[in-house]
Amino acid sequence: MSADGFHVHGPHDHAVEHAAHGNDKFSGRIAVMTAILATVGATFGYQGGATQNDAALSKNNAAIDKTEAANRWNYYQAKSNKQNLAELAMALPGVDPEKYKADVARYKLEKEEIKKEAEKWEASSNEWNRKSDAAMHQHHQWALATTAEQIAISLAAITLLTHKKWLQYTAYAVAAAGIALGLFAWLHVDPIAGLMLALGGAASAH
Question: Helix crossing, 25-90 with 165-186: angle to 10°?
């Protein structure tokens, strides 16, 4: 306990403290490893937060564009109603059809322009949603990579206490898996999707 209250040490802090008070090279190597993994894990965590923010921003933009599209479609419907009324008026007895022909033609032209705008906003909304989904998937990859590094650090701390070689190698393996996941996230690669695609291609070949 410190002068200001309780102070909780993480696995990396214990590893460094143990290495500082020890003279064996084994402890020193593990302490260095945990320091590196802590840095890598912090970087992965930052990237995970950034991609989550990107996903939220893209989702917000998608909602805005979807609202704009809905407004355009409502306007389109209003023009359709006016066109229908003008066409109905043309069919009434005792009414000069030529009087409403210009209105019908004008409403048709305006509807086409409004439809193009509505479809443009819908396409934009769909694109923002696609970006949001991609960013969220990448966020999950960064989160998995960060978790793997945290597990590796904990295993390294246990290794310091037990001096078990198999724990050391397990920590290395988990750390390597975390780094691989981080590289996949950075390169926007989905190894599971790639594997499923490869298996699907192999199955169709047979």
Answer: 30
Q: What is the pLDDT of residue 34?
A: 92
Residue among 17, 43, 42, 40 nearest 30 (CA)? 17
Q: Which residues of the chain are modeled with pLDDT < 50? A: 1-9, 19-20, 196-199
Distance (Å, whole) CA 160 – CA 30 = 7
Encode 78-141 in three state secondary structure: HHHHHHHHHHHHHCCCCCCCHHHHHHHHHHHHHHHHHHHHHHHHHHHHHHHHHHHHHHHHHHHH
Instruction: Count CB neighbours of 188 within 10 A.
Output: 11
Instruction: Tell me if residue 189 falls in helix, strand or coil.
Output: coil
Ranges of H-type helices in 22-97:
25-90
pTM: 0.70
Q: How far apart are CA 50 and CA 63, in angstroms?
A: 20
Contact between residue 51 and residue 132 where contact means Cβ atoms under 8 Å apart: no
Phi, psi of 23 (to 5 degrees): -115, -5
> Mapping DSSP to helix (H, G, I), strand (E, B) and coil, where does residue 6 land?
coil
